[in-house]
């Protein structure tokens, strides 16, 4: 999926250089593919940060619980 979006975006940019008359359409298509890619990466980064935060809280609670005993 990620690789396909990269290839489609690259193809759009390549068509801008190799063809004439449809530059704006090709640019918009390439930018659309890049937006999909970066939206996915953004979502995965947010998810990873949430998981790391939860793991940190659980670890701190475990340490506090072990110090109390």
Quick rundown:
The protein has 69 residues and is an all-alpha fold. The chain has helices at residues 2-18, 23-68.
Beta-strand share of residues: under 5%
How are helices and strands ordered from N to C?
A: HH
Structural class: mainly alpha
- Helix count equals 2
Summarize the main sheet.
Answer: none
Query: Averaged pLDDT, please?
Result: 92
Find the count of extended strands (DSSP E, 2+ residues).
0
The quaternary organization reads as: single chain
The tally of structural domains comes to 1
N- to C-terminal distance: 50 Å
Radius of gyration: 22 Å
- Categorize the overall geometry: rod-shaped
The share of residues in helices is: over 70%
Defining key terms:
rod-shaped, 91% helix, 0% strand, 2 helices, 69 residues, mainly alpha
How would you sum up this structure, described in words?
The chain is mainly alpha-helical and 69 residues long. The chain has one domain. The protein is built from two helices and no strands. The chain has helices at 2-18, 23-68. The longest helix has 46 residues, at 23-68. It is rod-shaped. The N and C termini lie far apart (50 Å).
Helices and strands, with pairings:
Blueprint: H1 2-18, H2 23-68
Helix pairs in contact: 1-2
């Amino acid at each position: 999926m990620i690789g396909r979006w990269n290839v489609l975006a690259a193809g759009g940019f390549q068509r801008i250089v190799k063809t004439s008359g449809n530059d704006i359409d090709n640019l918009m298509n390439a930018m659309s593919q890049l937006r999909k890619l970066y939206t996915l990466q953004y979502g995965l980064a947010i998810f990873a940060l949430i998981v790391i935060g939860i793991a940190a809280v659980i670890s701190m609670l475990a340490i506090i619980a072990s110090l109390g005993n």
